[in-house]
TrEMBL record:
Residues 1-31, 483-502 are annotated as: Disordered. It is a multi-pass membrane protein. The keyword Protein biosynthesis does not apply. It comes from Streptomyces pseudovenezuelae. InterPro entries: GT87, UCP010361. Keywords: Cell membrane, Membrane, Transferase, Transmembrane, Transmembrane helix. The lineage of its organism: Bacteria, Bacillati, Actinomycetota, Actinomycetes, Kitasatosporales. This is Membrane protein. Belongs to the glycosyltransferase 87 family.
C-alpha cells in the first residue's frame, strides 16, 4: 500500500498547474526537451521537485551569464574602455572596487573618497554587501588581480541571491511552481545579474512577497524594509498593498507590514545616520542631483533639444508623472470588477517608476522580472518583453562603444540608441497593458483562469470586498444575492461578493 507521504505527494502533483497544458508557447518550447511532462512523470522521484528544478536551472543560467562576461574578465575591464562595450560584458563591480575605496580599506559612509564622489552612493545594506565582498577578496597581487577576485566573490554572493529569487517565486503561487522557470530562463536576468548589486534587493523583495503569500504580514514588512535599505524601489510596494487592504478591510495586516518595514529600515539605517550623516545622505543627494542619464525618454528629449530641461525641472516632472501613475493605479484598484492581485499592482507601480525615471540602467530590469512572472505568467508576453530588454541591453553597450571609440565610431550612433530606448519603453508598456487588461477582464488572467483568486495575496486571497467604487460596487442582482460564499466570475476563478453591493 502507498504511504501517506506518497499519497500526499500524488495529490499535490495532480493539483499543480503545468504551463505546458495551458500555455501554447510553453507547450511548443517543451518539444525541445521531449515534449510536455506527463502527469505521473515525477511521482516516485520526489527529489526532482519543481522548486529544485527551477533553482538548478536558475543557477545554470546564471553561470551562462558569467561566461558571457568572460571577455571582460580576461582583460577588457582593464585594458580597453571600448572593448568592454563592444563585447557587451561591462560591470560596475570591478571598477568600483578601487573607485569607491574598497581596495584601500576605506569604510563606506565613514571614510571620505578622493575622487568626484565624496562617499559611497549606495543605500546602506548594499554598502554592507559590497564591504563584506571586499573582506573576502584577497589583498595580494596586482590591482587587476584583486578586481577580478572582487568580481568573482560578488558573483558568488549574487548567485545565491538569484537562487533565492527563483525559489521564492516558484513557491509564492503554490499551484504554479513551474512559473519559476520564467525567472530561471529569462535572458535579460542572466545578462544583467552581475552588472551591479541589485539582486540583493530583488532577493529580499521576492522573499517578502513569499511571506505575504503565506499570511505572514510582519515578516513581509521586515523583509521589505531590509529590501528598501538595499534599494529604494521596494518601498513602492506598500502603496498597492495599502489600496488592496483598504478594499478588503485588512487594516491590521497592513499595519503590521508597515510597522515591520519601518522598524527594519530604521535598524539598518539609524546607526549610519547618527555616526556618518554625510556618508549616509550621499545616496539621496546623488539621486536628486544626478542629471538626465541613459535609458530614459528624458534623454531622448534632452539630446534632441537645443534647450534641454534642467535637472530640477526633470525631477519635478518625473515626480508628478509617478504621482499621476499612482492615482491611476489607485483608481484601477478601487473600481476594477474584481479586486486586482497583489503581484499585478506591484508590477505596475515599479514599472511606472522605471518608465518615468530620469535614468534606466540595464540592470533595473531585474526589479521587474520576478514581479512580471507573478503578475502575468504568460510565456508569449514575457518573452516579447524580454526580447525588448535584450535589445536595449545590446543597444546601450553599442552606444557607449560608439562614444568611446573615437574616430573609429564602432557601435551604435545616437539615433540608433534612441530607437533602443524606445524598444525598451514600448516593451515594458506592452506588458503593463497586458496586466491592466487582466485586471479589467479577470477572465483573461492566466492565474485566475486556472481557478485561483490571489495566490500571492496572503490574507487578501479569497477575502470579501468592503470598499469598492464605481460600477464594481453594484454587481448584477443575481451575483449580489447568490446563495453561497462565492460566485463564478467570467470563465475562471471565483469572487466573494457578500459585500460588493454595499
Amino acid at each position: 500500500m502507498p504511504s501517506a507521504e506518497s499519497t500526499q505527494a500524488s495529490e499535490h502533483e495532480s493539483d499543480t498547474v503545468r504551463p505546458t497544458t495551458e500555455d501554447e508557447v510553453a507547450r511548443s518550447g517543451s518539444e525541445l526537451i521531449g515534449g510536455p511532462l506527463g502527469r505521473r512523470a515525477l511521482l516516485g522521484t520526489s527529489w526532482w521537485t519543481p522548486v529544485r528544478v527551477v533553482a538548478l536551472v536558475a543557477i545554470g543560467m546564471f553561470a551562462l551569464g558569467l561566461i558571457q562576461k568572460a571577455p571582460c574578465y580576461n582583460g577588457a575591464w582593464f585594458f580597453g574602455a571600448s572593448s568592454q562595450y563592444t563585447k557587451a560584458c561591462y560591470s560596475d563591480i570591478p571598477h568600483l572596487y578601487q573607485g569607491r575605496g574598497f581596495a584601500d580599506g576605506l569604510v563606506p559612509y565613514f571614510d571620505k573618497l578622493s575622487g568626484d564622489m565624496p562617499y559611497l552612493e549606495y543605500p546602506v545594506l548594499t554598502g554592507v554587501f559590497m564591504e563584506v565582498a571586499s573582506w573576502l577578496t584577497p589583498g595580494s597581487g596586482t590591482i587587476q588581480d584583486q578586481e577580478q577576485w572582487y568580481w568573482m566573490v560578488n558573483a558568488g554572493m549574487l548567485m545565491v541571491c538569484a537562487a533565492v529569487i527563483a525559489v521564492c517565486v516558484a513557491r509564492t503561487h503554490r499551484r504554479r511552481p513551474w512559473d519559476g522557470l520564467l525567472i530561471a530562463l529569462a535572458p535579460a536576468f542572466a545578462l544583467t545579474a552581475t552588472i551591479n548589486w541589485d539582486l540583493l534587493a530583488v532577493a529580499l523583495t521576492a522573499a517578502a512577497m513569499l511571506m505575504w503569500s503565506r499570511g505572514r504580514s510582519l515578516a513581509f514588512g521586515v523583509l521589505l524594509g531590509l529590501a528598501t535599505a538595499a534599494k529604494l524601489y521596494p518601498v513602492f510596494l506598500l502603496g498597492p498593498l495599502f489600496l488592496l487592504c483598504w478594499r478588503a478591510g485588512k487594516w491590521r495586516d497592513f499595519g503590521k507590514a508597515l510597522g515591520g518595514a519601518a522598524v527594519a529600515w530604521l535598524v539598518v539605517n539609524l546607526p549610519v545616520m547618527y555616526f556618518a550623516w554625510d556618508g549616509w545622505a550621499q545616496f539621496y543627494r546623488f539621486s536628486q542631483e544626478r542629471g538626465v542619464d541613459f535609458g530614459s525618454f528624458w534623454l531622448i528629449m534632452a539630446q534632441n533639444s537645443s534647450d534641454p530641461l534642467s535637472t530640477d525641472t526633470v525631477n519635478t516632472l518625473a515626480t508628478l508623472l509617478v504621482l499621476l501613475s499612482c492615482v491611476g493605479i489607485a483608481a484601477l484598484t478601487l473600481t476594477a470588477p474584481r479586486r486586482p492581485r497583489f503581484a499585478q499592482l506591484a508590477f505596475l507601480i515599479v514599472a511606472a517608476f522605471i518608465l518615468t525615471n530620469k535614468v534606466y540602467s540595464p540592470q533595473y530590469v531585474l526589479w521587474l522580472v520576478p514581479l512580471a512572472v507573478l503578475a502575468r505568467p504568460k510565456w508569449r508576453d514575457f518573452l516579447i518583453w524580454q526580447a525588448c530588454e535584450v535589445a536595449y541591453f545590446l543597444g546601450i553597450w553599442m552606444y557607449l562603444a560608439y562614444t568611446t571609440s573615437g574616430d573609429a565610431h564602432k557601435g551604435l550612433p545616437q539615433d540608433g540608441y534612441h530607437w533602443a530606448i524606445a524598444v525598451h519603453l514600448l516593451g515594458t508598456l506592452y506588458f503593463c497593458g497586458m496586466v491592466v487588461r487582466d485586471i479589467l477582464m479577470p477572465e483573461r488572467d492566466p492565474v485566475r483562469r486556472s481557478g485561483d483568486d490571489d495566490p500571492s495575496g496572503g490574507v487578501l486571497d479569497g477575502a470579501e470586498d468592503v470598499f469598492v467604487l464605481g460600477p464594481a460596487a453594484h454587481p448584477p442582482r443575481h451575483a449580489a444575492y447568490f446563495e453561497g460564499p462565492q460566485v463564478e466570475w467570467g470563465s475562471g476563478g471565483t469572487e466573494s461578493s457578500t459585500d460588493r453591493s454595499l
